Amino acid sequence: MRIPLYTILLLALISVQANAQGLVSGVVKSASDGSTIPGATVVVKGTTTGTVTDLSGAYSVNVPGGSNTLVFSFVGMKTLEVAIDGRTKIDVSLETDVIGIDEVVVIGYASTRKQDLSVAASTIKIGDNNKGRPASLGNLIQGQMSGVKVTQSGDPTAEAAISIRGKGNKSGDAVLIVVDGVPNAPYNPADIETITVLKDAASSAIYGAHAGSGGVIIITTKQAKEGKLSVEANVWQGVQQAWRLPEVLTSEQFNMVWKDASEAAGKTVPATYDPIQFPYGNVTRTDWVDAIFRIGRMEHYDLTLRGGSKDLKALASISYDNVEGTLIRNFS
């Protein structure tokens, strides 16, 4: 069977077009402001062929046969893959790649990515999942990171005791709290945005005499933002109680202990602890553990207002806490 010459030429032309994409050019811009991006990388996917954009954001690259995708990338921008589909001019816009707050760590003198740190640090972001907790530093970090121990007392006026990787020395150096770069500055717990704990001596050494061996907690608070006035309210109510209370003996059990101890020592049971001579002493009238402990109520309210214009921004917040301790205090 004979095949016409024009059929052979047509098949050859199709084959050449399928295997040789040729030169592709275009401009790379920023999606946020439309400015050109010099130095962006343009690579033919699956190959080592590529180029970078010039000062005006323009590029041109020879696409080998069989390839149909260009990969555009730049530091701080999201990588973009675009199909060529026979086009010779492709203009693209790259979007900003926002680094998550959990990947950025404030370490006192700077902010850096967590993976670039050579010191031990942990960071938590205070979000909606933390709004169900009373607004105190101890409650916010309790159980959230390893190596940090929070001990609550029954006194509602006392702050929680925080230790990082145990006590630094025999006396137990206190943890240094740095608020927006200022050591031991006052703060409203409801305004906390992120908490970073520096766990080793190398990271806390930058604070000099302010920090002992107890470690450092860095607090970053919410900042005023441009835009319409926003109102954030948080209301929380709950209860707390002491855990693993001691079990005390009843009067009858207490007298039995005295009887057994006296018989073991070969002595006579004192009349006060002998139910035969003093029956009244064998009756339990008061559970003293139950008498001094209680289930304490907790209430928390906070309100934050923020907003403003491009030239003037403002933030105001107020909070109120009413916490009953688990230990009943008697005043004379």
From TrEMBL:
Protein's cellular compartments: Cell outer membrane
Biological process (GO), any one: siderophore transmembrane transport
Transcription regulation as UniProt keyword: no
Pfam families, A to Z: CarbopepD_reg_2, Plug
Topology versus the membrane: Multi-pass membrane protein
Keywords noted in UniProt: Cell outer membrane, Membrane, Receptor, Signal, Transmembrane, Transmembrane beta strand, Transport
Transmembrane portions of the chain: none
Keyword Transmembrane attributed: yes
GO cellular component: cell outer membrane
Domain called TonB-dependent receptor plug: residue spans: 114-214
Principal subcellular localisation of the protein: membrane
InterPro entries cross-referenced by the UniProt entry: CarboxyPept-like_regulatory, Plug_dom, Plug_dom_sf, TonB-dep_OMP_SusC/RagA_CS, TonB-dep_rcpt-like
Family: Belongs to the TonB-dependent receptor family.
Name this protein carries in UniProt: TonB-dependent outer membrane receptor, SusC/RagA subfamily
Organism (species): Lentimicrobium saccharophilum
